[in-house]
Prior knowledge:
The structure is a homodimer of 424-residue chains. Chain A folds into two domains: 11-135, RuBisCO large subunit, N-terminal domain (Alpha-Beta Plaits); 142-419, TIM Barrel (Alpha-Beta Barrel), CATH 3.20.20.110. Helix content of chain A is 40%, strand content 17%. The first copy, chain A, is built from 18 helices and 13 strands. Chain A has helices at residues 24-34, 48-54, 101-108, 130-135, 142-150, 170-182, 202-220, 234-246, 256-259, 261-270, 283-286, 295-304, 323-334, 356-363, 374-377, 383-399, 403-407, 411-419; strands spanning 11-20, 57-64, 84-93, 120-127, 157-161, 187-189, 225-229, 252-255, 275-278, 291-293, 309-311, 344-347, 369-371. In chain A, helix 6 (170-182) runs parallel beside helix 7 and helix 16 (383-399) packs across helix 18. Chain A starts with 10 loop residues before the first strand and ends in a 5-residue tail after the last helix. Chains A and B meet through helix 2, helix 3, helix 8, helix 10 and helix 11 of A and helix 2, helix 3, helix 8, helix 10 and helix 11 of B.
Amino acid sequence: MTATPVWEDETVVAEYFLQSYLPMADAAAALAGEQSTATFVAVPGETQALRDRHAARVVGVEAVEPQEDAVLRGSLRPEQAALSAARVRVAFPLRNFGPSVPNLMAAVLGNLFELRELASVKLLDLDLPAAFAERYPGPQFGVPGTRRLTDVRERPLFGTIVKPSIGMPAERLAALVRELVHAGIDVIKDDELQGDPPHLPFDERVRVVMREIHAGAQATGRMTMYAFNITGEIDEMRRRHEHVVAHGGTCVMVCMGIVGLPALAELRRESAVPIHAHRAMLGALIRSVGIGIEFRAYQKLARLCGADHVHTSGLGNKFYEPDSDVVRSVRAVLTPSDGISPALPVLSSGQTPRAMPATHARLGTDDLMILAGGGILAHPHGAAAGLRAMHEAWAAAQTGESLGERAGRSADLAAALTAFGGDA
Amino acid sequence: MTATPVWEDETVVAEYFLQSYLPMADAAAALAGEQSTATFVAVPGETQALRDRHAARVVGVEAVEPQEDAVLRGSLRPEQAALSAARVRVAFPLRNFGPSVPNLMAAVLGNLFELRELASVKLLDLDLPAAFAERYPGPQFGVPGTRRLTDVRERPLFGTIVKPSIGMPAERLAALVRELVHAGIDVIKDDELQGDPPHLPFDERVRVVMREIHAGAQATGRMTMYAFNITGEIDEMRRRHEHVVAHGGTCVMVCMGIVGLPALAELRRESAVPIHAHRAMLGALIRSVGIGIEFRAYQKLARLCGADHVHTSGLGNKFYEPDSDVVRSVRAVLTPSDGISPALPVLSSGQTPRAMPATHARLGTDDLMILAGGGILAHPHGAAAGLRAMHEAWAAAQTGESLGERAGRSADLAAALTAFGGDA
């Protein structure tokens, strides 16, 4: 007999955006039933006592404006029925699954997406009892550990992404890293498309890069952090992490949406360096209004599983996401919640000096990693000038100076503003 | 220097449903660029030689009817621009990522979902070069191995899902398994919500269930297959698999969409029994017309990573999916492709005897696992009668007899048809 756990009576509260052509109470009940004790017919053994202990319960329904364009195929639609929409909060007894991220996911993110009673279903947020943070260690380095390793204070960490993403020969990569390190860059990361290709295998990439980083550190006194993309099979990730650490590397990157949160948690158990969590593929879950998962819910699970750096996209990004979403994502990553420490938000995608004033004004924090790939590497005077332009733009934002004004004193910034015109 | 791999010049062809308010050629080029050599500005080093070797290429565009209701938020929409839709085939050089499922996913399923140039983006199918099937072992048991273990020939495997999903005490579970085993059931599976809860911890569940199964096998001469849901953290899955095998169990189940394909591949490396792959959470990727992944593409990767049984939903299911989708999914799972062996399709969700004639007629094969949870357990004469009713319904379908006619000779079937009325 197992002792009753202290969390026996706790609940997880999941908040959803739901739409339905059925009465919302029925639609919400279908979700709560499917995800706990019920099935499509009454079965022997689904007693009142069992339901009392194990049924998920709808604990809040707040009507919101219906969105016809977010209706999913296959939704039940009784004749003449109107679409209704609500934010619905469902409480799941923790005793059904315990403080396990995968088993939690089966409950709050499982079959419910397939319910025909629901015309839209998106997980918006999760309130987790303390048992999760007690079981999962959370970020090992987070903001303070990453600042310590890079020796950056009172400003964001600035970095770049190796571009072209793929196909770069070893000599060119070495030269690029050398240039960036000597220019004083804080962070360089692999593109998420860079894995273990024959033209530059992972192990060789690590050797080539770390040679330059160690040599640069001798000159500059600072170790540039390089986020090596170790995304791969579980055993490969383990081996690649060891290889990075053996060569003195200080960061590994994984595409969390591809490898899965259990793989992230497994890596966290062994990792000696910060885990940089890229969000490739998560767009499939977060972009639709009608189905999927809001990023603020997902990032909480990612932090729980040990992500130190979490990609949030950036203000003025090249992708679909409006700045308001990015601001919300960044704040979520930086907010301690449910006993889980913050991670360092990584602002990436189409970042150039032009994005800095809004980034500073809307986020109001220095606890950011800002990655500009093309925004640094495509600077007309070279990558070092590209980095200086980013610093200039941030410094201007900190002092309330306009970019135009600052560009009068900074040729690098002026060139960047010309090169990266447009709406960024 | 690594030797040039034999697959150096191969490509992966990914087929997408795309919509855009830009000219389709531009939209498709944005996808191909983002997912290979390009970024939002030209960068030094993106030479013609590099593009020639590494750029993804649009190799087919077939216009289809636009679907306004599948448009995603944040899509670029020049004034007056009309929506166009196409099936677009993109060829990705294998040399960019090699035969690695996670690195392939970063290319064909990565940032592209976030592209504002695309108003819809769904992966429909994948053509994989032989290098994948050469590296990944695929299903270890598949259809023949599962038939061998269960001793079932010339008919589908019939099974049930333990319901209520959660909260059932050990004694009741033991009694239920005993009844089902003696009734001659082929397969029993945990509900996907069943993990390692305090009221019946995983290890105890295995002991309780396997005691009944071994005792039943003494009486019936056949081992019922029980798919234990081992979904959890990586180390837990490994340990739970060992525990199942140590107790003589013959199947483990994982929620593949939750644990991730690398975790599935890792399990496959060590597994001594068939892996039953549940699709909880995959609805978030497959239901929307405008974003995500078609199941036929996903199941190919799942088979590659070692899934022996793949959930496809069932005809007349309780969820959103039309039978036509289910038929396509089942056929995909059963079709050898790209050197990957078939898996056994698992038809589940709202299955009752009523679904058997259409299942037989439309699928035309016995190579199925048909799981009825409520459809067996809620039979008014008990689970054994529920199982007999399923067999009767299949036998009727095989001989072209109607269910009504057969029910005249089978009280169990007659009772099932009455109990499970409706449109199933």
